[in-house]
Design brief:
There is one protein chain. The strands form 3 sheets. A 3-stranded mixed beta sheet has the order 4-3-7, covered by helices on one side. The chain has a two-stranded antiparallel ribbon with strand order 1-2. With 149 residues, it is α+β, with helices and mostly antiparallel strands. It is globular, with a radius of gyration of 20 Å.
Length: 149
């Protein structure tokens, strides 16, 4: 970050990272968070239900979903490491969420064709990024997964 500005809340000039000073300082110096590429502090909170457990996941938009789930303790194997080459990160979405997300590409659809317990709203977590439309949603893990990796 290339920013030098005086913040009323600080005793000296603030260099480099404007995040602790918030939007007010950015407006005062005529810059926007997008221009500075300041990552949003906002997270998306969702619930993940498994056959035997339930987790609350908080993740920033844009983060790979399978990584966000695993980082928050969701018991998901993801054998292929996120390469869409297995179906162990299979999740089932609500109809509304399914429609709000970008369509699955052929690679993902090929893996879902051979996955266990597939529903019409099934997706692979490794093919998705955390999206604001996931806020407050419940993602369901299937009762059974098959590991083709």
């Amino acid at each position: 970050y290339l920013l030098t500005a005086f913040c009323d809340g600080c005793s000296d000039e603030s260099y480099a990272d404007p995040r602790p000073h918030g939007e007010t300082m950015l407006r005062r110096v005529g810059l926007t968070a997008a221009l500075l590429r300041v990552p949003s502090r906002r997270t998306v909170t969702m619930t993940v239900k498994g056959p035997d457990n339930e987790w609350t996941v908080d993740a920033p938009p844009g983060r790979r979903l399978h990584i966000a789930l695993k980082d928050d303790g969701v018991e998901m194997e993801c054998s292929c490491g996120g390469q869409q080459a297995c179906s162990t990160c299979h999740v089932i979405l609500s109809e509304e969420l399914f429609k709000a997300l970008p369509e699955a590409e052929d690679e993902e659809l090929d893996m879902l064709d051979i996955a266990a317990d597939v529903r019409k709203t099934s997706r692979l977590a490794c093919a998705l990024k955390v999206h604001p439309s996931m806020e407050g949603e419940t993602l369901t893990l299937p009762d059974e997964v098959k590991d083709y990796w």
